[in-house]
Amino acid sequence: xxxxxxxxxxxxxxxxxxxxxxxxxxxxxxxxxxxxxxxxxxxxxxxxxxxxxxxxxxxxxxxxxxxxxxxxxxxxxxxxxxxxxxxxxxxxxxxxxxxxxxxxxxxxxxxxxxxxxxxxxxxxxxxxxxxxxxxxxxxxxxxxxxxxxxxxxxx
Length: 155
Fold this sequence. Notes:
The chain has helices at residues 6-67, 75-81, 87-124, 131-154. It is an all-alpha fold. The longest helix has 62 residues, at 6-67. The N and C termini lie far apart (157 Å). The model has no long low-confidence stretch (mean pLDDT 84).
C-alpha cells in the first residue's frame, strides 16, 4: 500500500484534472456573472443619464414658455368668459376690490404713522440750548413780523 499503483495514480491525475476543470469552470462562471453585473450597472448609468437629460430639456422648455408673453385676450373673449349678469362673479370681484382697497388703506396708514414717528424722533433730537438755534428762531420771527406789518400797511 505504500506504493502507488498505476490505477491509483491515474485516478489521482484524473481528480487533479477534474478539479482544475472545475476551477476553470467556476472562474469562467464568476467572470460571466461579473460581466453581466457590470453590463447591468452600465445600462443603469446610461438610463439615468438619459433620464436626467430628458428632465433638464423639459425644464428648459417650460422656462422658455414662461418667458414668452401670453397674448392679451380680445374684448370678445373677455365678454364671453365674464358676463355682467353673473351675480357670483360680481360678488367675487367686489370682494377682491374691497380687500385690495383695505390693504392699500392699511399700507398708507402705516406709512403715515412711520412718518409721524420719524418726525417726533427728529424733534426730540433738536438741542434747544444751541445758540445757533436761538439766532435762527429770532431771525424767522423778525421776518414774519416784518411781513405782517407790510401786509397791514397796504390794507
